[in-house]
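S.,

As promised, the nicotinamide-adenine-dinucleotide run. Input:
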Amino acid sequence: MIRNTVQVSLADRSYPITIGEGLFADGALLEPFVRDRRCFLVADSTVAPLFSDMVQKTLEMAHAASISCSVFPAGEESKHLATIGELCRAAAQAGLDRRSVMIALGGGGTGDMTGFAAAIYMRGIDFIQIPTTLLAMVDSSVGGKTGVDLPEGKNLVGAFHQPRAVVIDTDLLKTLPDSQFLCGLAEIVKSAAILDEAFFTELERHVEEIRKRDPQFVAEMIRRCCELKASVVSRDEREGSLRAILNYGHTYGHAIENSFQYRMLHGDAVAIGMRLAADLAVELGVMERSEAERQKALLEALRLPTSIACDPERVYQAMFKDKKALDGVLRFVFTPVTGRAEVRKVEGPLVRAVLERCRNA
Ligand SMILES: NC(=O)c1ccc[n+]([C@@H]2O[C@H](COP(=O)([O-])OP(=O)(O)OC[C@H]3O[C@@H](n4cnc5c(N)ncnc54)[C@H](O)[C@@H]3O)[C@@H](O)[C@H]2O)c1
Ligand SMILES: [Zn+2]
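Predicted complex:
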């Protein structure tokens, strides 16, 4: 059985990411993190019936002192402060102390909330990420950004809190709907586009395997993305500068999501956002047209959207609600060539013009 480990190097906050199949068959992998400690498993209402029994058994085999489980309703609507309050109260009722461990079993929503609860419960306890969506496996479970949404905007409240371990069992993807799988693909294309031209070429060459969800190639994509994210996070844990390139496609993307009141998939918005950012880069003379076309072609080959019927003014206004633009300045990540990224400030009118021209084109 192939098992890969990627290390996130952050001094005393370093941790392993283990990627493989059947990782929960015994307790060996979790034991160093949970032995003789109280464990608090958090999952949403879709994921809990699928995997929580399996993970609870593994925790028993790993000699956890006790195991309690908390389930919240699936969906981004749950990602708010009230749920954090409920999680912390349930943790207190389960007798969690400062040595206890929270375990996030689920997608990015579960990971963000469990990590945030772990960051503030008793001023910070350990947590483990067990991602179950492709997006969480390639992106959100690594890096220690945790938090929740406010009615005023997404992810406005949170903390940096690194997990002690990330355990990625690719078997867990078998129940993931194709639409959610596509969401993860958008972030994979993003990582390749900003950091790794060779990986981008691999994606272009393996479109068929990706579309068929070939287990071996999927595991390889996850490993590569974790390596790339680990390397960025190790160099810039708190987004002083470099880490911002991970937001490629997200300036337009977040604004599009916001203008549709989040009734669309994040990955779709990011795919459209990357296409628009590339077009903007071409307009500014930062990127060759052929490079922009190359990226658009891969997104389309993977069946990700690259345009949307939207209200340009609404999307434009939404850009200023994003926490990264609260100072009124729009910043974009560009890829002058595929595999390399930079951040630039851009004047509003051009940003709006590209939106106008690109819808449905
Ligand atoms: N912390 C970070 O660095 C970071 C990065 C990117 C995104 N995020 C956050 O992640 C969230 C999006 O992540 P997501 O798309 O994983 O969302 P999610 O956690 O809401 O999961 C999406 C849906 O898939 C279901 N699901 C999960 N695993 C499944 C499985 N194996 N089989 C069947 N169904 C399954 C869930 O119940 C949910 O309905 C957003 O809140 C976003 O802000 C955080
Ligand atoms: Zn994203």
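The first strand starts at residue 3 and ends at 8. The CA atoms of residues 112 and 146 lie 4 Å apart.

- D.
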